[in-house]
Design a protein that fits this description.
CATH class of the largest domain: Mainly Beta
Radius of gyration: 23 Å
Number of domains: 2
CATH superfamily of the largest domain: Calycin beta-barrel core domain
Strand order of the largest sheet: 4-3-2-1-10-9-8-7-6-5
Order of helices and strands: HHEEEEEEEEEE
Largest sheet: 10 strands, antiparallel
Number of helices: 2
Number of strands: 10
Structural class: mainly beta
Helix content: 10-25%
Distance between the termini: 80 Å
CATH topology of the largest domain: Lipocalin
Amino acid sequence: MNPSVPRSPIAPGHRAFATILGATLAVAWFAGAPAAAQDERMVGIWQKDLQRSDADWPHRHDRRLPNAADIELDISLDGEDVVMVFTSRRRDWPTPRTTTAHYITDNKPNPVPDIDSGTPRDVRAKWRKRKLTVSYTIKFPFEADIQQIWELSKDGENLLLTRFGRTEQGRPDIRKNYFVRATAVQ
């Protein structure tokens, strides 16, 4: 033993135990992080603000559609997962259309019905810093990867959906949809 090196007051066996315990606690802490990241303030009924929202793809985002769908959204949490019930209305539809999307937030592909057609598509969802991130691929005349980010305003009164994608020509296409709190789905 080198006398110039100070001796640790913790026995070598106890140091190994403390290291293992610390590593286990760190893993447990970070494994629980996604649950703490979810934003319970998203729960409730929301109404799409057609005045502030961009037109839905594939229409030009700088033009409003004269017959845009009126969308109401009822959000609930199922543990860490998110359930969104979309109710869409248009003047030319005889009845409202309702679609339920259950986003399993494990960042693995899970089938979720498309809001417009109801056809299932593989969707990945996860919580990231109190924002819900949803990713999927659309197949129309071309294929495009879409990422949606759902987040609340600081006061919790507005829900913002930012949708990132690409046009058929490969140009970035970013759309924003704003939702305001509503009292009841009509």
